[in-house]
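Regression test case RT-17, inverse folding.

Input:
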């Protein structure tokens, strides 16, 4: 096989994961909408999942957050908790989208779901 063919074949093989990943449809991921009302300056602690094989991440960050983070420590009882506090003086609507992973048996890929939290901040 010529060096050109080897490079071309290697290039095509490298593209397979990109195309395979692009074929997955976001519509296959269950989504949940939650609305939370909180006072300006108040901190929201929203529990998501717990367990050794579970986790969460912020997929789309809020625009008006002084604090927006995932916490999992002794203070949360090892539950994965989303923590949000609006910027000082902010009153209005903000939102965050979380991606939550569960894998109760610890085998294979995790189950994924998305949670969109609408944050209504008022005085």
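Golden output:
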């Amino acid at each position: 096989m010529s060096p050109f063919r080897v490079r071309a074949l290697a290039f095509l093989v490298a593209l397979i994961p990109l195309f395979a990943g692009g074929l997955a449809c976001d519509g296959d991921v269950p989504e949940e909408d939650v609305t939370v009302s909180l006072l300006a300056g108040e901190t929201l602690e929203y529990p998501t999942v717990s367990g050794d094989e579970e986790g969460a991440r912020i997929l789309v960050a809020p625009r008006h957050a002084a604090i927006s983070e995932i916490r999992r420590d002794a203070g949360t009882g090892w539950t994965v908790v989303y923590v949000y506090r609006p910027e000082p003086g902010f009153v209005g609507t903000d939102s965050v989208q979380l991606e939550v992973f569960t894998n109760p048996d610890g085998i294979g890929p995790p189950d994924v779901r998305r949670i969109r939290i609408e944050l209504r901040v008022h005085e």
